Amino acid sequence: GNDIKLTAERLEGGRNFANKLWNATRFVVSTIDPDYTNMKIKRDLLPVEDRWILSCLSRTISSVTTLMEDFQFGEAQRQIYDFLWGEFCDWYIEIAKIRLRSAQKQLPSPVPVLVHVLETSLRLLHPYMPFVTEELWQNLKSHLPPDWQATESIMVATYPEADKAAVDPQAERIMEAIIEIIRSIRNVRAQYQVESSHWIEAQIYAGDLTPAITPYSQAIQTLARARPVTFHDIQQGISEGFPSEENDLLVVLPNAIVV
Fold first, then answer.
1. Which GO cellular component does the record give, naming just one (predicted)?
2. When you count CB atoms within 10 A of the terminal residue's CB, does the N or C end of the chain come out lower?
3. Which helix (H) or strand (E) holds 237?
4. Regions in the chain scoring below 50 on pLDDT
5. Is 239 found in the same domain as 225?
6. 108: closest CA among 33, 44, 26?
């Protein structure tokens, strides 16, 4: 293992992380209706973002387990932190909020996945933050139905095991492209100091990913403050824009520069 330098900045980062977890748990609990029932998650019926977060969770559990067995506790903690703060809080929860507000009822509710990922992640994090995770886990447990199988304390709950069947490379590829599009638009907004109240047009050229990404135009609009968002085939020959370094993407923002 490696020594960890304890600094004021690290303590402040831990405080911010605990606050992030607290707010995430409060949000998930707020989505649980009184008549909520435990439902088996059927992955083949889930939208891309659900399959993506479940895949990321499984990969994180697998990696963290290996690291802890090799006594690489610092790196294991970092990967849990990155997953919870990044994939779960910054991306999945924000997209789930859009789904919960949407009038579209053809998609399954994100609540079962929110509950599953949060509860599993708290057990994964427990060795590092025993008191905070116990408090949050008990709070979550109190809002779940009586038939939810749980121990009296997270301390004696089963440690998570990776679900290899949940690993979904295609869902990961699609979500990585969506996240990259949103980041590209945000970066341009910051570069040109576009006011947060100002919406900018976005034209997206996503190649073979276009059909899979198009249904997420509402999420891109909301999270990137871009409207309208239109999708095109990259074969149209448009070359001026903000190309992706990792995917076959090109983001064009015709009115990004505001005088």
1. cytosol
2. C
3. none
4. 239, 246-247, 257-259
5. yes
6. 44
